[in-house]
Specification:
This is DNA primase/helicase. It is built from 22 helices and 24 strands. Strands 13-14-17-12-18 form a five-stranded parallel beta sheet, sandwiched between helices. It has a four-stranded antiparallel beta sheet with strand order 6-7-8-9, with no helix packed on it.
Amino acid sequence: MSEPNNDDWLPDPEPRPIDEEALRRNLADAPVVPGEVSEKKKGKDDGPRKAGSRTAKADRSSQGSDGGRGRGSRKRGEIFDDCPVTPLGVHGDYAYFLDVSSQIRAVKKLEGQVIQSLFGHALPQLRHHFPVWKKSGDDFVRDHKRFDQTHASMVMWEAVTECGVLNPKGAVRGVGAWTDDDGQLIYHLGDAVLVGGELQKPGRIGKKIYPALPPMPHPSDDPGPDPVPEILDTLESWNWRQPDLHPFLTLGMICVMMLCGALDWRPVFWMLAPAGAGKSEFQKLLGFLLDDGGVIQTTDTTKSGITSQLGQSSLPVSVDELEPGDERSTKERDMIALARVAASGGEWLRGSSDQSGVGGKVFSAFLFSSILIPGVMKTQDVQRLIRLELEPLPEGTAGLKLQPRTWRDRGARLRRRLIDRWAGWPERYSAWRQSLELAGVTGRNADNWTPVLALADMAIGEDIAGETARAGWARKAAFQVTADRDDTTNDSEAMLLYLLSHHYDPWRRGEQWTVAQWVMAAAGLPGAPDALRDHLSDASAIDDRTGRMGRANALLAKIGLRVVHNDPPSLFICNAQIQGLKDLFRNSDWAGGVWKQSAGRVPGASLTPNPLTLAGIRSRGTLMPLKSIPGLMTFPMDREAPAAGAPSDEIEDFM
């Protein structure tokens, strides 16, 4: 009676009559083993059999259907037909497989335990295709408790190397929304992949790999009642700074967070809310709509913490209470920089102890919320930003009492509508982009606002909003863009602000005059302080205006600056890294001579054809028109303006 086993679903090879004479002949022809393997040295898979215990013919004929037949009889890149383990490729010392559960696995050594973990509940197939035989009486039968580890390892290495080199950073996609090369929406739900509206098993789809992962919230199977009216009504219950725009904008933000990995551009959202504005309640609503596993929500984290949580997914990120920290802290700066990279789906990189480097691409939409925006934001960060502002709620306002099940269901129905309406996204995006550009919202601002407004429109209706409706929302967006423009400066304006606001005290007397005031004195402009003019005056001269200007210029030359009385009058900044100029820009974005790049971007700026001499140092540089430098040509607010038609003699040369 044969021993029980769990391979009954796999038929054994058809039994053949034993030719004892052939067995004896093949045994005699078998190679001689140098010596018996001792019991201590015997491998765990050597088993009880001795070398030459079965014929070559029996060995070939009794192996499994594909694993034993070698390269010539199996499909390239497969271990055997219908194998539950899928080879993906190799990278360095590692081989990559999708295991029986469709998880991606990086394997360095294909040892017995590792192979068993790859096959998991499909171990009967592994034993069937890579059998171990044992003698039973005069016949050889399968050992149903073991598999040929060496042979399986060889075939698996052969199959995985046939797949070529794999770059898991670019080929593997985690949970979230994605698109293929044709723009078709692919929604990786963790335990399934939604492609073109149909669910597929995780695995290789097209050129990308979507491995099995812990499931994220699925879209609703039943569209049910439209969830958008309830969502908008609830959003309008907050006290927004712009109540006619921000609730609609917030709906669009939620939609962006649901589909962020499928978008070409993801703006960064920042919610400003003082105490008592209901910010915590909003975060709770957001968590219910996106559901557990559909968003990374945190109040205390770092860039490394976020990237570790994201992995290769395109989940949105919500960071609450990102307040300005200590000046020496890099926490806020690093997270804002990560959000900047994510806007375009860029890659972050960091060194590692083995010099191989770590990093990955980020396709997440970021929402930060705080009372104040940290001052570490650079121009390129502000240009990606959409601000949502809350005011304190009226005293005595009751809480919302949100029901988790109700709002999670509404979020699932909203996700279903966005997925079902994705096919018309290109046309909808183009229509909204055109409306925004007609309203004066162009360039990076249009990149930010178009997906938000277009997705809010897609959530509301299957048809694209009419031209009149789009124009109305575009005008409201243009108003906020204009209002926020003062916070957005280009690098040349930022460089001038940094330079001209520095204090310069060449006499070491403690006078706190800025570089801008020195420039005004050298140019003879009315904004120069009277006290500075007095310091520069020659008491023996009757009209010392020209002398004052010359003495101011001589002192500016020591820090690499000079007012040049050309047409138009300009401020010269040298290219040479003289000590005075280096001191002014130390620890700034323009240190080390970078200032000359920003100086060249000032409107009307030009390079000098020949070197100029400043305090005995010759250098080429950039001429920046005074009229292009904000504030220099403006009449001082603390002085009475001259009568109309009678301009001051001191500024007539510059009008």
